[in-house]
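User: Quick one: structure for sequence A, then sequence B.

Assistant: Sequence A:
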Amino acid sequence: MDSTLTSFTVYLVGYTHNSYPTLPTGIPGPISTLFTMERIGSDLIPTNRAGIADDDKSSNRARLAIEIAMKCSGLPMSIVTTAKALKNQSDSVWEETLKTLERKKLTGTSEYSTKLSYQLLENEELKRIFLLCACLGQDALVSDLVRLCIGLDFLEGVYTVRDARDQVQMLLMHLEESGLLSNSYSNDRFTMQNLIRNAALLIASENNVFMLAKRKLDEWPDDDKLKRYTAIFLHQCDVEFPKNLKCPKLRVFHFHNNHQHFKIPKDFFGGMKELRALVLLGIDLSEMSSSMKYLTKLRKLCLEECINLDENLCIDVGKFMKNLRILSFSGSDIKSLPTEFKDLSKLQILDLSNCSQLKSIHAGVISSLTNLEELYMRNTLVEWRVDNNREETENKNASLSELGHLNQITNVDLQIPSVSHLPENLFFDKLHSYKIVIGSSSTHLEPDFKIPEKYQLLRYLAILEKDVGIHSQKGIKILFERVENLLLEELNGVQDIFYALNLKGFPCLKTLSIVSTSSIRYLINPQERKHPENAFPKLETLQIYKLDNMEQLCSRVSLSSSSFCKLKVVKIKLCGSLKNVFLMSMVKLLVALQTIEVSECNSLKEIVFAEDPQDANASKSLKFQELRTLTLKSLPEFHGFCSISSTAQQKVLLDEQVEFSKLERLELCSIQIHQIWNGKNPPFGKLVHLEVNGCDNLKSLLTLSMAINMKTLQSLSVSECDNMMHILLNENSNDTQSEKKVCT
């Protein structure tokens, strides 16, 4: 390295997290910073990740950092992991680390840096969580980890599912800070870089854990090893099971199979009497029943996506597994819950989601699960008994009113056939989170209206029921006050969402989706009210689909400054009577709006309508300072974004009245405008993507002044614009200097 350098930054350029390069000495261009190396004397050391302060760079700590960094051979993965592990540690720990590196000649190995981080973790809980993360695989669900921790019962002082989830989240955060975990693509998952995971699995094997993934197991470990194992994880492996495995210390057995024809041998679990967590995914359970009597200490049982889960097996579960805290049959072919399940009084989580053949739950079973905290039952066909219905005297099934006896319940995921099945005293408003679907959709819902995943924690309500009076029921109205995500389909008899459903303005609502409801004409229609309405103060996403008679989102109504103040996304499709999207008086409230998508609305003339003639004459400025995406498709009557300056002969999309400072994406399809922009200062300085299709009235796409302004444009697509003669039109044919600017 150049001895004249005083500092440099280590970068990663175009590498995945599985293939790190050695440290470069200098790299130009826009690249992402990994960490900083600074020169101390004649050497360079990693300062910020190791927690070395500016006034400490000539100390013994800095000397140790130099030598440890040199032992890492310039490998970013090793340096970063080691630096994070040593942060906030004493000098003696630094000294011992250096001695170990020298003594064992572990120069530059990611295994050592990971092992060092593991050894320096604060407590045994963190160490166990770290090894479990490695064994569960890449991008595993946090909820699966939480369930496993409850099954193993090692979270000290934690007794509820909610507390366990909070504790696990905190432990995962510590592991991220230590550099042992990375950000996943979802907040509901965690991930570990392959180099770290490989090292973690080596540590796990030293701690009597056997893990194999996507490989063929030619031969099982010898008997001595099996007797020492505390956990076995087999992920999608080609394997043949012996008649039984003698694993007297085994506490976890996790087997994820590739096909459902694989059978577990009879009495296979006879030698695993200390088992606490059993997970079997995708197998044939026809010979499983005989093993149940051995698993009396089991706390977690997951038989998911399995076949031949018959009544005898279920009876044995209820008879022998009275210590169960977690029970999941998700995706399996279970047909009924027997009365023996009444004995599972310690059960905290019951997951019956996607059990499409489940029709029968015996009366009294649900209400007997007095410690139940979470219940998942989406996509089942349970024939719930309707309370106080003389016609159902022969129905021996449970009714939903049994859920009211569960005092510990905090989270439910339910699909309720119709409003008639709702219990008289709804308790859902007291839940920490819920996903409740009432009725069934009569149409194929678009992806935007997909029900959230079962492991997502939020308050979600979907009303897909045609019953005219469902929205007026007391229990439903209470739900509206705390719901965060609301889907309404075919809600007949409602013309106005705000006044008919919740006069408090849906104070917690973040996502509102309205589908195929012909009676709705407004979100908010004016009423005789003395004070400004506080409407949708937390709403972030508004999706409207196929509302044939909707005329306006908001008619002339006085709204408080907090109304719609967090709205980021507006998507509208197939609303044939809608003439505009926003009133001009409403624009000042839309301070967070980032996306507008409007398509297939045959009557739509403009996005913003000037309801007051004085505003129209004054050419009032319309500020959309956060707008990033504008998509307009198949709008045959469209005149312009705000059509004050447009005429039938000259339809202009945008002019100087509208201010966009952050617009990145503009998509126009089948709208009959004559100009995209009319004015001096085009607002396209941040535009990245421009797509124009089927706009037959456009004779030119861009003027020279517009093109000069588009310094960040990366993608330009023009198609099926039959009358377009110019992509780039120079307003001043003598301005050759500007043409040169565009070309460069």
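Sequence B:
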Amino acid sequence: LQKAITAYNQAAEILRQPGLEKDLSSTLNNLGNARLTQAERGIEPAENLQKAITAYNQAAEILRQLGLARNLATTLNNFSFAYQAQSRLPSNSPDEKQAALDNAYRSFQEALDRVEYLRGEIGANSEGYKRNFNEEWNKVYRGMVEVCLELGRYQDAIEYADRSKARNLVELMATRDAYPGGVIPDDIRQQLQELRQTIAAEDYRLQKEKNPDRTHLDQLRQEFQKKFPYKPLHFQAMQELLDEETAILEWYILEDKFLTFTLTREKLYLWTSSQEDRQKLIGWTVAYLTDYRNRNNSQWRETLAQRLEELPKILHLDEILQNLFKNFPKCQKLILIPHLYLHLFPLHALPVHLPSSPNPLLPEGEKGANSPSSPLSPLGRGAGGEGQSSPLSPLGRGAGGEGKFLQDLFPKGVTYAPNCQLLQQAQSRPRFNFNQLFAIQNPTNDIKWADTQVETIRKFFPQRKTLGTKATKANFLAQDLSQTHHLFFSCHGSFKPNSLLNSGLILADGVLSLENIIAKLNLKECSLVTLSACETGQVALDQTDEYISIASGFLLAGSPRVLMSLWSVDEASTALLLIKTYELLQKQPGKLAQALPAAQKWLRETTNSGFYAWVQKSPLLDDHWRKHLAQVFQIEQNKEGADFRPYESPYHWAAFCVVGQGEQKMARDRDKIEAFEVLLGEDLDYLLAPYRQALDELQLGDDDEQNAQAIETWLATREPLYQEYQKQLATLTAANPLLGPTTEMGIGGSKANTKGSTLEELLSNIKKRNTPPPPPEKS
């Protein structure tokens, strides 16, 4: 190293002449690297770090002048880590440590600005390169998060941690929402690049001034953000995603520890692991995946419950939840944002054991969940072995140290998101309808339970279309799904970690690949995609922080939420779980995050005799399937006994989870008509003007359901009006949450118009406004 340093110094002296600036900057960067390595080895660390910083600083100055963004980003990254190492010198005074950390923060910030500039140069169809790009530059985000922690800037830490995740997916979703076809037009892309260059030049100029005025720079950045679809999410906006009952647990894995952020609308808490905990997490993950990927993974299935007992101890989940409920006792809904390999595990199904304490959901003075009279006690089982209480009723939080599963602690559900930015995008996709189903049913004709679930669940929808063995790739991709409210697949899944875009769903003649899903599907009206198939929630394991799975393709295609599986599932337990989920969803439309865990609890706790009793009364089953399933469970009773719980293992009940928005507000027919009436008002006349003549096409009557359907059909081809209609509808449904019977919610029922001829009068007035005045009479 010392000889290398001598050589670099000599080379630098030779290169300090006009025309050789790029070579000089490269040599200075290498000199800095050599000095930094010496410091890391304990060789005169203070002196070597200062000399490394000097070399990096000189290299960065040259590269700013030359405008070489990639080289500058590399040097700034090295520069930042040198400052970070300098801050950790034992000989530092508090002021010296603070100064070094401040310098590291500024250098990482500038490095990330350059990285963003470089991302903007990547073409729209360069996903493979983008993944490699992320893998190369994620170290800058990790370094920035560590420096934020050392500075005590915890809000910045969660911002940068969240921003590093699923970046390609979020950017693609934002671009699709902003531009038709999901491609930024060439002229806009050129303007963005020119703005990036202008911003970089202005920033460089200001760095040389003693009292810089950043007004113009801020204006340039605002102009850039208006044109660029992707907008970084800042801490305040992250908190605004949450209501007064919801919290986020977000993990971030670093080189020597992992972090757990607990975010509520009012507070942020941080838990930091030890290096030993991180090593235990890696060991647990390796053992889990080794057994799962074994060709005969019976050992993985048989030991899954035992394994899941160990993971919350490593994650210190009980400790984190205790802190959450202590500081946020009204929390009823939880959003999980994993990182890297944590995406592969059923975190919602982890066993938790909270210490004895009064249940925070109970009014003061009431007894805890162990009390026989407690309304929050665990669901009972009747003579048939099936839960008798309301399956969507709140559950207790384990008073008396009782063990439960994580999702049992949150009455309004536990859902997943790749990051807060995707959660924001999902929330910005209002979907008010849930009555049109398109289903793929057993296209390979070898999953007998697939027919059971699809033919049962489809009764939930008044408008439905099903493809069975005719579901070829060409036939499916030829379908117009733009007005479909629910897309349901019951088939085989194929996840290929080494060829991600070829992962997909197996149709009658081949794989509907992730690449097909991303490129071909338009789900702009879809409220939910259900993937009743294997491994649809599996993600690639690499260092990119990306979120690439079969489910992610449907998020990108337009759905705000996907019901997905984390492993290869059993067809019988999957069918029963989903039939029960939709049975509960029928009672409370849109509340998937509550229906799914209630169905999972039912599945694991119900006995053979309980299933037999359920078959007799399930409202979704017809006579054919009622008779068939009764025979199945009669045989099971005779073989295993009436009180045996066949699906108690988490292998059967824990595989499925919701990614994206867990709850959708369904609009009533009356809401849709009122939103349309707002469009007809004079305040929005400028928007309606081009379409007045076409209003004659609307055929309206006395039935709200038919009127609402006619209105939405008419609006579907008039995009500006339709977007404004969606905004008005979102306002109405926000003020009018779903309560009351199904027939009031547009889930198949109709209701007579209760507002008389208001709509007809408005239409008449519009037509009058469109009629030119008569010519003046001649005198």
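Residues 430-606+647-660 form a domain with the Rossmann fold fold (CATH 3.40.50.1460). The chain has a mean pLDDT of 83.

User: Thanks, that's what I needed.
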